[in-house]
Give the backbone structure.
Amino acid sequence: MRIIRIYNIIIKSLGKTALVIGATGLVGKALVSQLLDDDTYVKVKVFVRRPTGITSQKLEEHIIDFDLIETWKNLVRGDVLFSALGTTLARAGSRKAQYLVDFMYQFRFAQAAAENHLPVFVLVSSVGADPKSKIFYLRMKGQLEEAVKTLKFSGCVVLRPGPLTGKRKEFRFGERLGILLVRLFNKVGFFTDYKPISDEQVANVMRISAAYALHGFEVLGPGTLFQIADTYKKK
């Protein structure tokens, strides 16, 4: 497989700086933890609306207001930007508020990174993302993918995971029920693209994909995510 063949022949260079938005979310927290343990990166810069509570000499934490672009734009410099930012409709309160977080904040940040000549962008999207979808969430994710595709990154990788599993602070009954139902359907061969995947697996694939994202735009679907996650277990 192309992604694995390329990863096998790449020699990781040390001294990189990783940037993360969405660091307090499910995947974001797992990613930051892995990046702090990854010798490829000497610095991990997180841009958050509230403190992460993480202490590390490698961590550089920036508390920002995503609406005030000029206050953080010049800080968006490094080697790889990882975006795991997102919210739910219930938490946001409206489609407009969710769109602001899931589309506008991520696109503006990616745009700033591209303008500052940051070379690689890794984005967590969603299985089923489609700019023409009748489902608001999937349409929004698809529109974001199309938007970042126009930005001038040397390499851009989009991950499309299915339902996410992991330890969340809040209990989401609907999400838990949905994952249970999907797993039942998976056992009889249905909805295999929507097979649940863990936060740790997605975070690990994000790190791996950043290592080979030298040029171009690539979308990794659920099957590819599991193949990479199974081949390269978290170290």
